[in-house]
């Protein structure tokens, strides 16, 4: 099973942060935020940036047209603004000799197991090559049925996808308050949220979305925090204008509102693997492969002796030894038809035989649970 990486941080920048409360992107503020992220990368952290701002950038580039709020108009603004936003990020990260890669996602990318694996592998590959992934919802094609709905929840899904150690959500507020601080001068900052459930009064205090520029208010940030913490991720909601906020939070300083991981459900993915898989979808392994897996290794094609059932990449399959004893279950990187062609072969031969490869492992040790 994969474990959280404490040096892997997802940072979510909202529209209100990127514009500093104005109708246009604030380049000086973005320079400062990128500088902080670059410092973390140089210190050995892996950073994934989930960014809003495409629609705001498109509206600015088109000189603030008066448009209706229907989805095609928003998609049009996103199509124009996405290009401008990424060009600006590329320019800013280049100042610190860092390269970026754009990743556009929809909900269906993260709910379909094969596309989930593809998305995760893409992000892992970018990070392995010291490229900063910049993630956004694919607003130009997404519809209400497939879109995540806001980049707050998208950031939580991404943090779960890559097993990040921390999710930092930056906003125009210092954190989560006991009530709306813009209406109640006695509202107090909530410094820590722990326990299995977020108290009802905090949900009520978060209210709904009330930001004219962005799509999410504090309510969606609370939703995202709850989702991420149930995947074992530490979540921090803090003000984007706080000096050196990214570096300080990453170093452990208490800023904003911290949401502690829910320890009791960190193993939810392991339970998912244990309860999944059809009984007929099986891989029979030789003794060498069984020993390697029991010592914490991955399953390679060379250790496969038989492929049973019909399954696709990303499905859960059962791993059996030569005597028929089930030893593990895991998410398979290749379909049954592919494995019938490469079983018993060395990993270096996979691409030659299939014409493509999803990696050396049939099942990576991080996607496997031993029985």
Given as residue ranges, the uncertain stretches (5+ residues, pLDDT < 50) are: 208-216
Question: What assembly state would you assign to the polypeptide chains in this entry?
Answer: single chain
CATH overall fold name of the largest domain: Carbamate kinase
CATH superfamily of the largest domain: Acetylglutamate kinase-like
Mean pLDDT score, rounded? 86
User: Roughly what percent helix?
Assistant: 25-40%
Number of domains: 2
Provide a descriptive summary of the structure in words.
- The protein is α/β, with parallel strands linked by helices and 371 residues long.
- The chain has two domains: 5-266, Acetylglutamate kinase-like (Carbamate kinase), CATH 3.40.1160.10; 270-370, PUA domain (Archaeosine Trna-guanine Transglycosylase, Chain: A, domain 4).
- It is built from 14 helices and 15 strands.
- The chain has helices at residues 15-19, 27-42, 54-61, 71-94, 107-111, 113-128, 151-161, 200-206, 218-229, 245-250, 268-275, 287-294, 336-342, 350-354; strands spanning 5-13, 46-51, 99-105, 131-137, 164-171, 192-193, 234-239, 257-259, 282-285, 299-300, 304-308, 316-320, 326-331, 361-363, 368-370.
- The protein has an eight-stranded mixed beta sheet, sandwiched between helices.
- A hairpin with a 5-residue loop joins strand 12 and strand 13 (326-331).
- Helix 2 (27-42) crosses helix 4 (71-94), helix 3 packs across helix 4 (71-94) and helix 7 packs parallel to helix 9.
- It is globular, with a radius of gyration of 22 Å.
- 40% of the residues are buried.
């Amino acid at each position: 099973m994969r474990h959280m990486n404490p040096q892997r941080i997802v940072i979510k920048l909202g529209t209100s942060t990127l514009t500093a409360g104005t109708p246009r992107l604030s380049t000086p503020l973005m320079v400062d935020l990128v500088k902080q992220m670059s410092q973390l990368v140089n210190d050995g952290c892996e950073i994934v940036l989930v960014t809003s701002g495409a629609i705001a950038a498109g509206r600015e580039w088109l000189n603030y047209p008066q448009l209706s709020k229907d989805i095609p108009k928003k998609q049009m603004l996103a199509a124009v603004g996405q290009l401008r936003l990424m060009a600006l990020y590329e320019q800013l990260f280049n100042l610190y000799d860092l390269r970026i890669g754009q990743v556009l996602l929809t909900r269906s990318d993260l709910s379909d197991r094969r596309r989930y694996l593809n998305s995760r592998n893409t992000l892992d590959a970018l990070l392995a090559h010291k490229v900063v992934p910049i993630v956004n919802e694919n607003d130009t094609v997404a519809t209400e049925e497939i879109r995540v709905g806001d980049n707050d929840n998208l950031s939580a899904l991404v943090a779960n996808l890559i097993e990040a150690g921390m999710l930092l959500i930056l906003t125009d507020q210092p954190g989560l308050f006991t009530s709306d601080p813009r209406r109640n001068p006695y509202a107090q900052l909530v410094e820590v949220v722990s326990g299995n459930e977020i108290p009802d009064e905090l949900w009520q205090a978060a209210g709904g979305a009330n930001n004219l520029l962005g799509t999410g208010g504090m309510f969606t940030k609370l939703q995202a925090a709850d989702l991420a913490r149930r995947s074992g991720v530490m979540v921090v909601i803090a003000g984007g204008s706080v000096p050196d906020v990214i570096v300080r939070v990453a170093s452990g300083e208490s800023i904003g509102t911290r949401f502690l991981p829910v320890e009791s459900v960190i193993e939810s993915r392991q339970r998912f693997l244990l309860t999944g898989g059809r009984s007929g979808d099986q891989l029979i392994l030789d003794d060498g492969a069984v020993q390697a897996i029991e010592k914490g290794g991955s399953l390679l094609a060379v250790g496969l002796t038989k492929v049973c059932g019909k399954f696709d990449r990303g499905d859960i399959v059962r791993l059996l030894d030569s005597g028929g004893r089930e030893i593990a279950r895991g998410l398979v990187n290749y379909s049954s038809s592919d494995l019938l062609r490469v079983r018993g072969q060395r990993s270096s031969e996979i691409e030659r035989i299939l014409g493509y490869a999803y990696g050396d492992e049939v099942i990576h040790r991080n996607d496997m649970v031993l029985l």
